[in-house]
């Protein structure tokens, strides 16, 4: 299987209100169903980025200066069924990496896991230097997510994203999530998911969450309101 990242502008932000509940998780392109995970994926590393040894395993590093808010690359997710698989990633530059999809997926709910070979190699930080936004067309979410710098990034810096913006509630068996070992002075202490953050952090971070986290947040809120109405 050959996999390529596609270039594109940073998409507009998604609504941060209950309006988000009317958006659909339907991919607008041909692959709308999850597929079996391929054993091997060939892909091109975007220009200006490299795979290097990181504090834990490997990570994605930049070789160039990236100004704040600048577009970096687009992840093109493959929806897969089975998360308990090893995948061999082979880059155009000769890197061969074996990754375990049980720790390198994005849980999209309904038994579907999203895998992008490049984005899968980006490590977590509670104070990340990059973020990603789901691209939507009309009211439908696509399989693409654009990565951009949330602050100036210097050459040779590791690219990090905040997994708490992409995971609503991590399954208890997901390892290692507790305690978080990102080492940032702004560390939240745990990677158990957006749901478990303090209320003030939720308010501050909600505009940067991925669509499925935002939907889960407002669904949870609605459930609490329904419960209260039932009690009255
Ligand atoms: Zn942390």
Structure description:
The chain has 232 residues and is an alpha/beta fold. It has one domain (2-231): Beta-clip-like. The chain has two helices and 14 strands; from the N terminus they run E-E-E-E-E-E-E-E-E-E-E-E-E-E-H-H. The protein has a four-stranded mixed beta sheet, with no helix packed on it. A hairpin with a 4-residue loop joins strand 7 (86-91) and strand 8. The radius of gyration is 18 Å and the shape is globular. It starts with a strand and ends with a helix. The site of zinc ion has 6 residues, from loops.
Please describe the biggest sheet, giving its number of strands, its sense, and whether it closes into a barrel. Answer: 4 strands, mixed
CATH architecture: Beta Complex
Strand ordering within the main sheet = 1-2-7-8
Cα gyration radius (Å): 18 Å
Distinct bound molecules: zinc ion
Give the termini separation.
Answer: 56 Å
**Class, according to the CATH hierarchy?**
Mainly Beta
Question: Uncertain runs with pLDDT below 50, 5 residues or more?
Answer: 4-8
SS content category = alpha/beta
* Beta-strand proportion: 25-35%
- CATH level-4 homologous superfamily: SET domain
Give the tally of structural domains: 1
CATH topology heading: Beta-clip-like
Q: What helical percentage do the residues reach?
A: 10-25%
**Strands, total number:** 14
Global mean pLDDT:
83
Count of DSSP-assigned helices: 2
Apparent shape: globular
Order of helices and strands: EEEEEEEEEEEEEEHH
